[in-house]
From TrEMBL:
Domain Protein kinase: 26-294
UniProt keyword terms in alphabetical order: ATP-binding, Kinase, Nucleotide-binding, Serine/threonine-protein kinase, Transferase
SMART domains xref list: S_TKc
A GO CC term assigned to this protein in UniProt: nucleus
Entry's Gene Ontology molecular function annotations: ATP binding; protein serine/threonine kinase activity
Species assigned in the record: Blepharisma stoltei
InterPro entries noted in UniProt: Kinase-like_dom_sf, Prot_kinase_dom
Domain of life: Eukaryota
Protein name: Protein kinase domain-containing protein
Regions annotated as coiled coil: none
C-alpha cells in the first residue's frame, strides 16, 4: 500500500502516554507551582496514586551544576529531618527524564518525590478566617515542627505561609527547604531579597541568629492568619507600622484590627513578644510553649471537623 498524506493520518496510532507528559514512569497531571529554580508537578503512578515532584531541570551544563547543588542541599535537609510536621521525601533521582507531551522533546532532571498534600498551604487558610482556637491548633504544630528542626541543628530560613502545606489528614507539613542551613547560630549578613517575614537584624543587614529569624517569621505568619494582612511591610523603624507597633502598641492593634474581629489580649501579647525589635527581647521556643495564649483552650473535634470541611471545599475536593 502506498501511503499518501491522508492515509498516513488514518494509520497514525495515538499513543495515550504521549498525550500527557511523563517523569520516568509517572504520568504528569499538571503543574502545581513554578519557582525560581524548580517546578512542582502533580504526578501519578500506574496505580493512580498521586505524588508531588519537585523538579530541577538539567538542560545546559551551567544549569545542571547549579540545579544539582540546589537539589542536593535541599534533599539533604529533607533526609536529615523527620519530624511529624515536615513534608516527607519518598524518593529522589539525579537521572530523571522528563518527556513532554505529544513527543515535543525531553530533558534530564533532578527531582524529589513527595507525599501529595491536596489542600494547598496555610496561604489558602487565610481566606477561611480561622478563629484563635483553630490557629492554636496550627500554631502548636508549627512550633513543634520548628523545635524538631532546630533540635536536629537545622534552620529553615524561609518560613512563610506558602511553605506550610496541608496534608491529606489536615495536618501541617513544612516544605520549601531551599534556604535551610545546618546551623542554628549566628549567620553573616543576609544579601537576599527582603520581605515582611524578615527579622529587623536581617533587614538591617547585620549578622543574625538563624533560629531567632525562624521564630520571627512564624510570628508574622500567625499575624497574617488572623488579621488577613501583614503586620508591616518591613521590620524596620522607618516603616510606620513597625514603628507604631513598637511605640504605641494599643493604638497599633486598634488600628490594625478589623472592626468585626475580636483579638484576644493574650494573642496580641504572644505576637508582640515574637516580633520584638531585638533578638533577646523575643520569646524562645520554651517560652512560647509556656505562654498563656499557647495554653488556652484547643478546638473541639466538632470545631475541627467543621473547619476541615471549609478547607476541603476551598480545595474543591468534595
Ligand atoms: N508535596 C506537595 N504537595 C502539594 N503541593 C506541593 C507539594 N510540594 C510543594 N507543593 C506546592 O509547590 C509550591 C512550591 O514548593 P516549594 O516551596 O518546595 O518550592 P519553591 O517555593 O520553589 O522553593 P522554596 O520555598 O524552597 O524557595 C508550594 O508552595 C506548594 O504550593
Ligand atoms: Mg516555597
Amino acid at each position: 500500500m502506498v501511503l499518501n498524506k491522508n492515509t498516513k493520518n488514518i494509520y497514525k496510532i495515538k499513543n495515550p502516554m504521549s498525550e500527557k507528559s511523563s517523569l520516568d514512569s509517572f504520568v504528569v497531571l499538571h503543574t502545581i507551582s513554578k519557582g525560581e529554580h524548580a517546578v512542582v508537578k502533580l504526578i501519578e503512578d500506574s496505580y493512580g496514586k498521586k505524588f508531588a515532584a519537585k523538579i530541577f531541570k538539567a538542560k545546559s551544563l551551567a544549569l545542571r551544576a547549579l540545579h544539582m547543588s540546589l537539589w542536593e542541599s535541599e534533599l539533604k535537609a529533607y533526609r536529615n529531618i523527620n519530624t511529624l510536621w515536615t513534608l516527607r521525601v519518598l524518593a529522589s533521582s539525579s537521572t530523571g527524564i522528563y518527556k513532554k507531551k505529544s513527543q515535543k522533546g525531553e530533558y534530564s532532571c533532578f527531582y524529589m518525590l513527595f507525599e501529595y498534600c491536596p489542600y494547598g498551604s496555610l496561604w489558602d487558610v487565610v481566606k477561611l478566617s480561622p478563629d484563635e482556637k483553630i490557629l492554636r491548633f496550627y500554631f502548636k504544630q508549627i512550633i513543634e515542627g520548628v523545635e524538631g528542626l532546630h533540635s536536629h541543628g537545622l534552620t529553615h530560613l524561609n518560613f512563610k505561609l506558602e511553605n506550610v502545606l496541608i496534608d491529606e489528614n489536615f495536618g501541617l507539613r513544612i516544605c520549601g527547604f531551599s534556604h535551610s542551613s545546618f546551623d542554628t547560630q549566628e549567620a553573616p549578613t543576609y544579601n537576599g531579597r527582603l520581605d515582611y517575614y524578615k527579622s529587623p537584624e536581617i533587614v538591617k543587614r547585620k549578622p543574625y541568629m538563624k533560629n531567632k529569624a525562624d521564630l520571627f517569621a512564624i510570628g508574622v505568619m500567625f499575624f497574617i492568619l488572623l488579621l488577613q494582612k501583614p503586620p508591616f511591610m518591613r521590620a524596620d523603624l522607618i516603616d510606620p507600622y513597625f514603628k507604631m507597633m513598637k511605640a504605641k502598641n494599643n493604638e497599633y492593634w486598634i488600628r490594625m484590627k478589623p472592626k468585626n474581629l475580636a483579638v484576644s489580649s493574650e494573642y496580641q501579647k504572644i505576637i508582640n513578644s515574637m516580633l520584638g525589635e531585638l533578638e533577646n527581647e523575643r520569646l524562645s521556643i520554651e517560652e512560647i510553649k509556656k505562654h498563656a495564649w499557647y495554653n488556652l483552650e484547643d478546638p473541639t473535634r466538632e470545631e475541627l471537623r467543621e473547619f476541615f470541611q471549609k478547607v476541603r471545599e476551598k480545595a474543591k475536593i468534595l
